[in-house]
Amino acid sequence: MKRYITTAIPYVNAKPHIGHALEYIEADMIVRYHRSLGDDLRWQWGTDDNSLKNVRAAQVAGEETEAFVARHAEVFRGLGPLLNLTFDDFMRTRDERHIRGAQKLWSMFKPEDIYKKSYTGLYCVGCETFYTTDEAPEGHCTIHKKKLEEVSEENYFFKLSNYQQQLEDLVSSDTLKIFPETRKNEALGFIRQGLQDFSISRSVERAEHWGIPVPNDASQVMYVWVDALSQYVTALGFADNAAPYKTYWSSEVKKVHILGKDIMRFHAVYWPAFLLSAGLSLPNELFVHGFFTVNGEKMSKSLGNVLDPEDLVANFGVDAVRYAFLRSLPAANDGDMSLEKMEERYADLANGLGNLVSRVAAMANKYFDGNISPVMITEEEPKLAEAIATYDCKSYIDSVWTWVDCANAKIDTDAPFKLVKTNEAAAKTSLEVVAGYIVAVATALAPVIPDASAKILAAYRADHVDNVTPLFPRRDAEILSD
Length: 482
Description:
Layout: E1 2-7, H1 18-36, E2 40-47, H2 52-61, H3 65-77, H4 79-82, E3 89-92, H5 96-108, E4 114-124, E5 129-131, E6 149-158, H6 164-172, E7 177-179, H7 181-192, E8 198-199, E9 201-203, E10 213-214, E11 217-222, H8 224-229, H9 231-234, H10 243-248, E12 254-260, H11 264-278, E13 285-289, E14 292-294, E15 297-298, H12 309-316, H13 318-327, E16 335-337, H14 339-368, H15 384-389, H16 393-414, H17 416-419, H18 424-444, H19 450-459
Parallel strand pairs: 1-2, 1-12, 2-3, 7-13, 12-13, 14-16
Antiparallel strand pairs: 4-5, 4-6, 6-8, 9-11, 10-11, 14-15
Helix pairs in contact: 6-7, 7-11, 12-13, 13-14, 14-18, 16-18, 18-19
């Protein structure tokens, strides 16, 4: 099957945090799993360079916007090697292919869907969106906890109300399928309350001369959501109808957007409306994940609880970070992360899997010179495909971990290190069965902990098991700083 998987593009107004890392690691797990089945897959990601939020951050830093944005974009690009991500392409929305593609998409909107008007609205720079008084009755953004700015200007609007019924039908019928079900219900609730037309441009002055010019109107630049959402097609060469666009944005391809819950509205409502207006193919699925809190509180610089993924990788290793993140976030809810929880998850790996792999390899070599043949397990495979199909990474790992528990339980029950003294053949059989569990675990966890899995599979071969250096060495408790 052909698949096109995308992750949301972040504003580059600051360094990446664990919320960004979480989404990329989730996507990488999904991508690696499908590639292991032989799927033709492309994973696209990048950065959202053109927002007013970036301009304001550059001003606070005392830097030119272009240099500030470019510097931060490269930090995000660096998450690729840091987190062992297997993405195919990284695109900034300052790239020429994006600028031309976004302008082309705008030009394809139906004339009856675009009009210009003057208006006054309450605007959150952090969200890059307007709020009604019903949505923010006290005039504050409920997400960023800041007072909304009152903005009065003339710019272009998109007639979203033209697509009310079509959008409801798409979501309710699962033609545009949203995971998990709770997010689908939220999207339908938003649509059914009545869709309002919304601004898709802003004046060059208010944008502080930053952004993509609106075609045929030098006084306006594109509003960030038209610009940002269009990157899903512009990155494929939409401007030139290039081969990647024709290959991966066709009706035969499963097109999946992975994103955080705070931007679901834009992906479940605005983006398909733009595509319908332009007469383009629609995405098939949205996976809307939750957020991490830190020790039960929202991450905040003022609270001093922002965790840096680079620090975590430096202290725990990339596989442990990937495992901890993926196993700590239920598909339908938020999750909690902290240094203490990282230590606990590291202990899962060290004591549950790492110790098992080393012990069995050591016994195989001590008693049989490594000459054992792992017995492939015949019991029913955990529901891995189902977990992947619903983007439930935690459930996937929990399911695989039943094999880890079975293997450890068999070692405890059989005690091959004792059995070998009285029944060498039975001890060898016991180790071969446990080794089979280990091979199954390493194979299934390859999308989660790729480096460790590769080391296990290199040591546990069809007719021989090599000694294995500790995969997750024991750690002394330590306190990490931000």
